[in-house]
Amino acid sequence: MSILILYGSETGTAQDLAESLRREAQMRHLAARVFELDEYDVGNLLSEDVILFVVSTTGQGEMPPNMRKTWKSLLRKSLGTDFLLNTHCAVLGLGDSSYQKYNFAGKKLFRRLAQLGAKMMTRSVFLADDQHEIGIDGAFIPWKQEIWTRIWEMGIFEKMSEQIDPEVEIQTKYRLVAVEEAPEEEPEDVTPSDSEYRALRVASNVRVTSEAHFQDTRLVKFEIPSENPMSYLPGDVLMVRPYNPQETVQIAIEALGYSPEMLNKTVKVVKNDPNSKNPPYFLFGKQKTTLLTLLQRYFDLQQIPKRSFFEMMAYYSKDPSEKERLRELSSPEGLDDLLDYANRCRRTTAETFRDFPATSKHLELDHLFEILTVIRPRAFSIASAPSRSHVELLVAKVEYKSRMADRRRGLCSTFIARLKEGDEVFCKIRAGTFRFPPPDAPVICIGPGTGVAPFRSLFGQRSEISPNSTGLLFFGCRGEHVDFYFSDEWSKMECVEVVAAFSRDTEKKVYVQHKMGERARDIKKMLDSGASVFIAGSSGDMPKAVASVLAQIQGEEWTKKAEETGRIQYETWS
Ligand SMILES: Cc1cc2nc3c(=O)[nH]c(=O)nc-3n(C[C@H](O)[C@H](O)[C@H](O)COP(=O)(O)OP(=O)(O)OC[C@H]3O[C@@H](n4cnc5c(N)ncnc54)[C@H](O)[C@@H]3O)c2cc1C
Ligand SMILES: Cc1cc2nc3c(=O)[nH]c(=O)nc-3n(C[C@H](O)[C@H](O)[C@H](O)COP(=O)(O)O)c2cc1C
């Protein structure tokens, strides 16, 4: 008898949590199977006793791609209200409250399961929020505590223990084997979500902010190989899979005590559980790889370690004093201590290995698969007009100071900023949030900073196919000669008038919302003649300020309705 854990994930976080639930179930003597939702046969759901769902929301409040088939099946009218009568279910939604349709996938799934008669194990859906001070752990930890108690109280899993048994030996998800010892060749991995990623060659990488400006923003051009074509539309995003920076890999290698021989020995990653999903072999090689490649491309060494990192380090530690400290940091009472040690100063995972030398130096290689999470791809709005030969991104490098001695750097934006011509990067195209109207329909776009990227794509396309269309673009930046992206291009596009707000060129700071206020009459005229509004960029104060100007122009009621019907659309990020 075992429980079933199903996940729906776009960038891998829900999968990580599902795997960590499987591990914790194992530590409670409870067998668990983990599948991505679309890999599991919906018809079998009704014969399960307990199902734990972990699902993220993607796009604009959408279900992640690897659960859309199942979601469609679950919505079938033919399924009665007693379909899941004998099944206990719980749902953890993963989302980000800076998105308008916050955690829609988890909320909808919870409601539908209840409609289908499932016995819901919690009174409502638990919602994990990227914006929480400790990220998704803010909801994941209380949710799983409640779930384990419920399952224990059911009393149907005889061997289950109420508390975690520290003596249980966890079977790692994968193991590393020397290539001579690797088992028989397996058929090539054809997992669709992985195989959609393909290596794109960097054609150019140009800094578009002035050298004197602190912000390093890049316009990066990737070539699309003609033998492996891909196409995109304005509003689409490019998912990019970054690698760890060399300096972070070096900190980890020293902390873990790996010799050059260990790092460069040819190995293969093999699944321990035949039911589990293959790792993304395309990233590091299926038949042969090295530990060094895994440290560079697969394990996330740069992220702030989550509580599960400390739990697993404590579990594997043989050093009494480090074990105790790791336990403190992973305990519910140690939350503030953890925030102070890891989150507030934005310590990286590699630096944390360094702080626990006795534990780190004695970890077995296979333990890394349980301690570390996998590098997540990042989304970037495509900045070029549709083309079969290339795709461009406008990327602002994230870099800032914290209490730590070294400057903190965003993983993917730094990776992109350092790309050289000829480098290859794994990417895939997916739909973004925006659904633009036909090319001749009027549009008002608001895109300060890198938020202008999707509008360069849109107006670039309109210049070619609908040059007489009407567009008004509000762009905001610090200064006309500092970070006014594509300033030389806009004047050549007849289909758009660009209104720029420079926040530091005058004594009084001028932002896009101020410029919109100045152009209220034109905006009203355009809206009355059917224009749609698109807002892209930082999810800070800007979207609210823009919505408030629109409400002043057209009224609160109109604005609310326009947001609901898609006349006003947002693509914002933190
Ligand atoms: C649909 C979509 C489209 C996007 N389009 C673009 C685009 O066109 N261009 C673009 O540049 N980005 C875009 N982004 C953002 C992009 O995906 C990344 O989030 C961004 O590049 C940062 O990623 P990173 O890996 O460099 O940083 P990470 O390693 O993920 O670190 C980012 C984290 O660092 C923290 N942080 C950042 N600055 C500070 C600070 N000053 N103090 C303390 N903490 C800080 C924040 O918590 C933030 O979450 C888009 C995002 C989405 C979802
Ligand atoms: C392109 C993109 C779109 C997103 N859209 C939403 C959204 O509409 N609502 C929401 O609550 N969260 C949204 N998120 C946040 C994710 O749900 C959140 O980061 C989650 O932890 C990702 O889980 P995953 O890695 O399993 O896909 C979005 C994230 C990305 C990258």
Automatic annotation (TrEMBL):
<dbReference type="GO" id="GO:0160246">
    <property type="term" value="F:NADPH-iron-sulfur [2Fe-2S] protein oxidoreductase activity"/>
</dbReference>
<feature type="domain" description="Flavodoxin-like">
    <location>
        <begin position="3"/>
        <end position="148"/>
    </location>
</feature>
<dbReference type="InterPro" id="IPR017938">
    <property type="entry name" value="Riboflavin_synthase-like_b-brl"/>
</dbReference>
<dbReference type="GO" id="GO:0005829">
    <property type="term" value="C:cytosol"/>
</dbReference>
<feature type="binding site">
    <location>
        <position position="130"/>
    </location>
    <ligand>
        <name>FMN</name>
    </ligand>
</feature>
<dbReference type="InterPro" id="IPR023173">
    <property type="entry name" value="NADPH_Cyt_P450_Rdtase_alpha"/>
</dbReference>
<comment type="similarity">
    <text>Belongs to the NADPH-dependent diflavin oxidoreductase NDOR1 family.</text>
</comment>
<dbReference type="InterPro" id="IPR001094">
    <property type="entry name" value="Flavdoxin-like"/>
</dbReference>
<feature type="binding site">
    <location>
        <begin position="94"/>
        <end position="103"/>
    </location>
    <ligand>
        <name>FMN</name>
    </ligand>
</feature>
<keyword id="KW-0560">Oxidoreductase</keyword>
<dbReference type="InterPro" id="IPR039261">
    <property type="entry name" value="FNR_nucleotide-bd"/>
</dbReference>
<dbReference type="GO" id="GO:0016226">
    <property type="term" value="P:iron-sulfur cluster assembly"/>
</dbReference>
<comment type="function">
    <text>NADPH-dependent reductase which is a central component of the cytosolic iron-sulfur (Fe-S) protein assembly (CIA) machinery. Transfers electrons from NADPH via its FAD and FMN prosthetic groups to the [2Fe-2S] cluster of the anamorsin/DRE2 homolog, another key component of the CIA machinery. In turn, this reduced cluster provides electrons for assembly of cytosolic iron-sulfur cluster proteins.</text>
</comment>
<feature type="binding site">
    <location>
        <position position="346"/>
    </location>
    <ligand>
        <name>FAD</name>
    </ligand>
</feature>
<feature type="binding site">
    <location>
        <position position="573"/>
    </location>
    <ligand>
        <name>FAD</name>
    </ligand>
</feature>
<feature type="binding site">
    <location>
        <begin position="9"/>
        <end position="14"/>
    </location>
    <ligand>
        <name>FMN</name>
    </ligand>
</feature>
<dbReference type="GO" id="GO:0050660">
    <property type="term" value="F:flavin adenine dinucleotide binding"/>
</dbReference>
<dbReference type="GO" id="GO:0016651">
    <property type="term" value="F:oxidoreductase activity, acting on NAD(P)H"/>
</dbReference>
<dbReference type="InterPro" id="IPR001709">
    <property type="entry name" value="Flavoprot_Pyr_Nucl_cyt_Rdtase"/>
</dbReference>
<dbReference type="InterPro" id="IPR008254">
    <property type="entry name" value="Flavodoxin/NO_synth"/>
</dbReference>
<dbReference type="InterPro" id="IPR003097">
    <property type="entry name" value="CysJ-like_FAD-binding"/>
</dbReference>
<feature type="binding site">
    <location>
        <begin position="503"/>
        <end position="504"/>
    </location>
    <ligand>
        <name>NADP(+)</name>
    </ligand>
</feature>
<dbReference type="InterPro" id="IPR017927">
    <property type="entry name" value="FAD-bd_FR_type"/>
</dbReference>
<keyword id="KW-0274">FAD</keyword>
<dbReference type="Pfam" id="PF00667">
    <property type="entry name" value="FAD_binding_1"/>
</dbReference>
<keyword id="KW-0285">Flavoprotein</keyword>
<feature type="binding site">
    <location>
        <begin position="410"/>
        <end position="413"/>
    </location>
    <ligand>
        <name>FAD</name>
    </ligand>
</feature>
<dbReference type="InterPro" id="IPR029039">
    <property type="entry name" value="Flavoprotein-like_sf"/>
</dbReference>
<comment type="similarity">
    <text>In the N-terminal section; belongs to the flavodoxin family.</text>
</comment>
<dbReference type="GO" id="GO:0010181">
    <property type="term" value="F:FMN binding"/>
</dbReference>
<dbReference type="InterPro" id="IPR001433">
    <property type="entry name" value="OxRdtase_FAD/NAD-bd"/>
</dbReference>
<protein>
    <recommendedName>
        <fullName>NADPH-dependent diflavin oxidoreductase 1</fullName>
        <ecNumber>1.18.1.-</ecNumber>
    </recommendedName>
</protein>
<keyword id="KW-0288">FMN</keyword>
<dbReference type="GO" id="GO:0050661">
    <property type="term" value="F:NADP binding"/>
</dbReference>
<feature type="binding site">
    <location>
        <begin position="378"/>
        <end position="381"/>
    </location>
    <ligand>
        <name>FAD</name>
    </ligand>
</feature>
<feature type="binding site">
    <location>
        <position position="450"/>
    </location>
    <ligand>
        <name>NADP(+)</name>
    </ligand>
</feature>
<feature type="binding site">
    <location>
        <begin position="56"/>
        <end position="59"/>
    </location>
    <ligand>
        <name>FMN</name>
    </ligand>
</feature>
<keyword id="KW-0521">NADP</keyword>
<keyword id="KW-0963">Cytoplasm</keyword>
<feature type="domain" description="FAD-binding FR-type">
    <location>
        <begin position="195"/>
        <end position="437"/>
    </location>
</feature>
<dbReference type="InterPro" id="IPR028879">
    <property type="entry name" value="NDOR1"/>
</dbReference>
<dbReference type="Pfam" id="PF00258">
    <property type="entry name" value="Flavodoxin_1"/>
</dbReference>
